[in-house]
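Question thread 4412

I'm putting together a teaching handout and wanted feedback from people who do this every day. The idea is simple: show students a protein as raw sequence, then show them the structure tokens that encode its fold, then repeat with a second protein so they can compare. Below is the first pair exactly as I plan to print it.
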Amino acid sequence: MTIISRDWSVATKPLEEVVCCALVGGSWPNAFGDPERNADVMTLLRELLFLPVERAALSLVLVMSVCASALDQIPADDPRLSYSDYVRLTWVPSPDDPTQRMVRFDRIIGIPRKGYGWDNPGARLRFRTDASVVTVSLHYSEKHISTSARKGRGIYLVDGQTNSGWTFTSSTAKTVRSPETVDVDLRTPQDGEMHTYEIVLPYGDSVDVLRIAVTDGALFASPQPRPDVRCVMYGDSVTHGFTATSIGGTYAYRTAALKNWQLINMGLGGRSSRPVDGEILAGIEADLVTVLIGVNDWQGGRPLAAFRANITGFIAAFRVGKPDTPLYMITPLWVPPSWHPPKANIELGEYRKVIREAVAALRDPHTHVIDGDGLIDHDPAFFDRVAVHPNDAGFKMMSERLAEALP
């Protein structure tokens, strides 16, 4: 196993390999962050092999103390840490220590009995350091209360790059879970140089930032700023991210990455057309906004006249606060014919037609329509078993085509 104890671990090598190294008298300069600390730990580990149980236990405590002293604990409100790609940020007391503050994000709009407003798809913690060891402590909170949907897998980047193994999640895959602290041990280049680290929060869980821990004496610098263009993507569960395997697989995240934009994700599972949401979006800083809405209106059997009134009202409310911001209305995606919502008594294509007609009637040069029906091939292989949701392959195709359609 790898040492991951929140209280004392700084090991960057698997525990079995470190102990094996002690057995044969070897050493690793970077196993515990620096050569002197490593030598102290190796000496103590060797002692464990020849001591009675009581004294061995005491020596193990000493090993833990050595490891703890090698870490500098940096709270979430330290100015060396920065945050981006969020809707709203607040400071709340840490559950570990009420005298310390942690970062909590939310997205303004609440979803009754779900808590999706506390999910923050793509919000980022960012910092730049030369530390040889970096551990990020996150609090998976009680705010996401849905009993039907949860996806808590986030990703991290080092110098803008990631891979399939650089992920984190809660300890349980159950839809309902208790709050917990998750410590993410980042893979750090062992070259003594400055590197930029970004923790990208998951799309389907409520996660706060507690602190980071780095090698004692590590230096920090300001990371490069995020891209200037802020794109707000509003919609339902598809924009929220369901059911990608992680935040990195969602169409919103992928599209923003392809366009080199900062992403503000306002997708909320179960959302249908609502004029009031246009007013809320108008209050969020944005250089452009995309809207993908309508499939839940179709699933719920909303009359076309009511849908038209909602779309027209949404755009009008948005334009009060943002008269010139480019707005891209994406019509609903194709849905495999195997999906038969019991209340869907109108063809989905009729809802697409309403959006096109509503936008055309406004004669607004800043409001545009994108054909969602053509963003993913009409093949069930690109969709989840809940067939209104694309899978990773479908989201990849969608993001590439959407990126081409956007400016």
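The second pair follows. I'd like the answer to focus on this one:
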Amino acid sequence: MSLLGLAAISVLGAIPVAYAATTTQVDSTLCSGGGFSWNSGTHTCTLTTIYTINSGDTLEIPSGTTLVISGGGEIDQFGTITVDSGGTMTISTSGTIGIATLGAPTITNSGTINVENSGATGIGSTTITNSGTMTISNSGSTGIHIGAGTITNSGTMTISNSGSTDGILNNNGASTITNSGTINVENSGATGIDNLGTVTNSGTMTISNSGATGIFNKGFVTNSGTMTISNSGATGIDNLGIVTNSGTMTISNSGSTDGILNKIFSTLTNKPSGTITISNIGGGTVGIRNDGTLTNSGTIDIFGKVDNFGTINNFGAKILGTIIIECGGQLVPELGSTYNGPAPVQVSCTTTTSTTSTTSTTSTTSTTSVIASVPEFPLGLPLLFAILVPILVVLRKWASSLRRSTP
């Protein structure tokens, strides 16, 4: 190479002859430059400008140190961000993306990450591995946009956005969210997880949104752990894809919408080891509304209501399922729906009321049962008998009079 070419490379730095990956710690040295400020009392570094992590490089936030990205601050990430145990990263920008990820970057957290932007996405497309604590509480835009990345969680993630956008947006069919830890979705203004890829849970997921859908699934949701859906204002899981359960799902919404909405052309499968318990409360609330196909070879325990507009197959591959209609539960067959397999098991409910005074004690026990898939007489069996018996008596007398008058 000519001397002129070497001089150009040296000046521009565009094509280094040999590049050695470096690890830069967040400390007083880094944070003494322009666009940074350092608080020596709290070991907090505040970034209000653009900082670039080159491909192959690592920015490390050590134990006892906090990095705050605020105002117009931004990290353009081509490399790796590592938050050590005891370290903290807080993203609270007000008009720009907190971490703009470029190339194939990664974030590894064993400490604490807080995403609380008020005007733009907190973290862009990246691969996140979390064994610590992550809290996503944006108020104006998406918390984490996975894009072409993945999220692997063995720690704790809490998604509590209050704006009009998603806590986690996974709009790439090849991207995954894998949880063996704890994920709490408790948004108050928009969808908790908007999924076009794959969500796999072997840990614990709690969906308790108060104003929007917990999970909007257009891809795959697979649960072998524990999933609790207790929304108070919107659908727990809005399924336009495939949901498969081999663990435990509890649906106890208290609003006026569905615990699980299984849309047309979608499937909800409960495997032999799976248990789904439906105990929704509130007027008009539905545990599962099935417009697609629900296949059960495990156990579905209905204390609330299952509204079937599609197909329910109460069996799997050579394995029959069990659907239990508890006291007050309903399995409603809507017009055009199909039910295949063993009939649901009916459970009578018994209530006891006791009245105690100084002179007497009275106990009253009543037993009722709910018949699934059979329309109930609207005013009860006593009224039905009260109408039918007089009619039968009149018919019998009329028949007797005909016989006497016949020559």
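Top answer:
Good format. For the second protein you could add a caption like this: Residues 224-356+363-374 form one domain. The longest strand covers residues 349-356.
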